[in-house]
Amino acid sequence: MIRPILYKGLALLTPGQDVVFCRDSTKQGHWHQDLCHALQQLLDLREPPLFLVPCYSAAVDYWFDEEQQLLRVAAEVYPLAWPHRPLLDALFALPDQKTLLWQLVEDPQHPCDRLAIESYRADFPQLWEHHHLVYDLRQASPASSFVPRRTEPDRYVLRLYVASETSAVEHALKNLHTLLSQCLTVPYTLKVVDVTKQPEFAEEDQVTATPTLVRVHPRPVRRLVGHLDDRDRVQRLLTP
Fold first, then answer.
1. For residue 72, what are the CA distances in angstroms to 58, 64, 228?
2. What digits encode the pLDDT tens for the residues 97-132?
3. KaiB domain spans which residues (predicted)?
C-alpha cells in the first residue's frame, strides 16, 4: 500500500487579499511567524504583521489513521480568511479532492477584532493593497531569512512629503538625491509635495506623518517615514 503524502499546511492572508503559505511535510519546519516574516520582506513592512494571526490565517493537517488505514484531514480557517476558502482549496486540496471541509474557528481567548486590525492600516498600508501575491514559502529555507529575487525596474517614481519647504527640508532633499544617485542605476523622478498646500496627494498616498518618502513606481507602493539619511532604509525602499 502506498502511503499518501502527509503534511501540515499554513496560510496567512492580508486584508488586500495577498497570501503566503507553506506545505510542510515535517510538520515542524514552518509556523505562522515564518509567514509573517515573509510578508514583512515581500511588502517591506517595518515589522512582521503578527496581528493578522489568527484572524487571517488557515491551517490544514493531513495524517494517516493507522487503525482505520485511512487518510484523515483537519482544515481550520479563521473568520476573516473564511471568504477565501476557494483559494485555500486550490492551495491545499489533494488532486482527487475538489474542496476541503473547512471548520470555522472562533477562539474565545483570542477573538478576532476587526476594529483592532483596522487600527494598523495607517502604519501598514501595504497590507491593504492588492499585489496579486501568492507566495509559497518552500521557495525560502526555514533556517535562513527570506530574500526575494531582485530585478531592476526601468525607472523609479518617488514622492517626498514634507510639512513645509524649509532649509532643513532642502538639506534633507540634497542628501536624499545623493543617496539615490548612489543606490540607483536607472533614472528616477522625485516630486516634493508640501502637505499643507496639497493635502489631497497625502490622502491619496495614505501619508500621515512627515517627512515620508513614497515609492510610487515600481509597484507595490512603499513608504519610508523619517530618517531619510539612512542608506540601508532607503535601499530597502528601493529594492524591487
1. 17, 6, 53
2. 778 899 998 877 767 888 889 999 988 999 998 888
3. 159-240
Q: Classify each residue of 150-166 as buried b or exposed e, where b means 16 or more C-beta atoms within 10 Å of its C-beta.
A: eeeeeebebbbbbeeee
**Regions in the chain scoring below 50 on pLDDT:** 1-3, 140-150
- How far apart CA 171 and CA 70 sit, in angstroms, is 69
What residue numbers bound the domain in which 163 lies? Answer: 156-238
105, 170: one domain = no
Extended beta strands in the chain, E state: 8-13, 19-24, 57-65, 70-77, 102-104, 134-136, 156-162, 188-194, 212-217, 222-225
- Give the CATH number, domain containing residue 173: 3.40.30.10
The two beta strands, 134-136 and 19-24, are parallel
Task: Please check whether residue 146 lies inside any domain of the structure.
Answer: no
Has residue 2 been placed in a domain?
A: no
Among the candidates 139, 172, 189, a domain finishes at 139
What is d(CA 96, CA 76) in angstroms, rounded to the nearest whole number?
Answer: 20
In a domain, 149, yes or no: no
Instruction: Classify residue 79 by its DSSP letter.
Output: G
